[in-house]
Amino acid sequence: MADVTQPRPRRRYWAEPYKIKVVEPLKITTRTEREQAIAQAGYNTFLLRSNDVYIDLLTDSGTSAMSDYQWAGMMLGDEAYAGSKNFYNLEAAVQKYYGYRYVLPTHQGRGAEHILSKMLIKPGDYIPGNMYFTTTRLHQELAGGTFVDVIIDEAHDATSLHPFKGNVDLQKLTDLIQQVGAERIPYISIAGTVNMAGGQPIAMANLRAVREITQKHGIRVILDATRAVENAYFIQQREAGYQNKPIASILREFCSYTDGCTMSGKKDALVNIGGWLALNDFDFYEEARNIVVIYEGLHTYGGMAGRDMEAMARGIEESVQDDHIRARVGQVEYLGQKLLNWNIPIVVPIGGHAVYLDAKRFLPHIPQEQFPAQRLAAELYVEAGIRAMERGIVSAGRDKHTGKNYYPELELVRLTIPRRVYTQAHMDLTAETVEEVYYNRDRLGGLKMVYEPKYLRFFQARFELL
Ligand code: F0G
What we know:
Elements: H1 31-40, E1 55-56, H2 68-74, H3 85-97, E2 102-106, H4 109-120, E3 126-129, H5 134-142, E4 146-149, H6 170-180, E5 187-191, H7 204-216, E6 220-224, H8 228-238, H9 247-256, E7 260-264, E8 275-279, H10 282-295, H11 306-319, H12 322-341, E9 354-358, H13 359-362, H14 372-384, E10 386-387, E11 389-391, H15 393-396, E12 412-416, H16 424-439, E13 447-451, E14 462-465
Parallel strand pairs: 1-10, 3-4, 5-6, 6-7
Antiparallel strand pairs: 2-8, 7-8, 9-12, 11-12, 13-14
Helix pairs in contact: 1-14, 2-11, 3-11, 4-5, 4-10, 8-9, 12-16, 14-16
The protein binds ligand F0G.
Residues 59, 61, 108-110, 133, 135-136, 191, 195, 224, 226, 264, 266, 275 line the site of ligand F0G.
């Protein structure tokens, strides 16, 4: 019997703080249909038709379910070319919850990365970062810069239990400044959480230390805020002194150590499209405001409809609610923990937006040049219509100078959980599917690449079975 004289413990379960009002039926396909579909797609899950997919864990980007409050906001779209009222709502939400002074909407995250890179990077510059992200690095390179990975070594080890695998290795950063000189480093690019490391967070203390080092040298800190709310949740759960702070205040503090951010609103901010570039420095804002009109649109819409800006403003507010973020990350942990209980090799600790299967340990008999993660993703589709994404050698691409393939330490398949979309039963079915494929893993062979696009090859590359 519970002792009712004692204070009640904090609710342990992460159950969803919402109920379902609208549903979208899913098509159930046969194994033969799926075998045909994946062959037609060149064994690339990006080339499948969504209609042929049962549980879509390709990405958490633009795949969230909006709330009734957001949908109501869609009807309040002010589609004026200039000065839409929805822009001012969006600006106010970013200022309030992220704390930056100036806000420019963009069509999505890479639109902001494009403008930022064009504005701040000169040919020959170096941009350190806590691991690369595909589009972020490419925009840095297209502007003439070279990305330098300064993340801690633990981030490249799928089995390391470090609680903040997104941390910057301060020695690597200091060495780089020494080697190339601060004047060749326009900014350091900080992602929270780190997608390619498995959705791993960076600690507040580490970001503060990065701020101290870079400030001494006049180097700016630019945040990739795409999943910064999820990062704030991990700080609340894992970092001393933050247990009793609300997510919103942790996020504000986190952003306060940076000079601006690029943002893909398609993740944390709970919308299907949109993003922004935020800056604190007026001169840079002015320059960015000049550039945004060339590539995105006027500075008060930047490629977004008024209604989409309204949905994003409302999504930002919902995203920083403690109950929301707890359930969001809680669902990811639920799936990951199930796989761990069955001894299936995944990246640990479990990330914020996805569970990453470790294809190197899952399929140790397939060498990396035969694309084990790509093969595993294709097999999950064949097994049960589950769509995942390769995050390994295909995603890593080629060195821009030598043209040689990168061979990343991490060869992963990402099971990415859209926000507020799937149920616990969907997670159970996903776990059982992974287990089934794991049981039969010896039967799987590798792939060969038969078509390779020039940029971001993972999106459109085609493969055949070996
Ligand atoms: N930064 C990070 C950390 C991202 O994960 C993404 C997109 C972007 C920037 C670019 O934003 O797509 O709005 O242009 N990630 C998606 C994903 C594509 O599936 O992880 P975008």
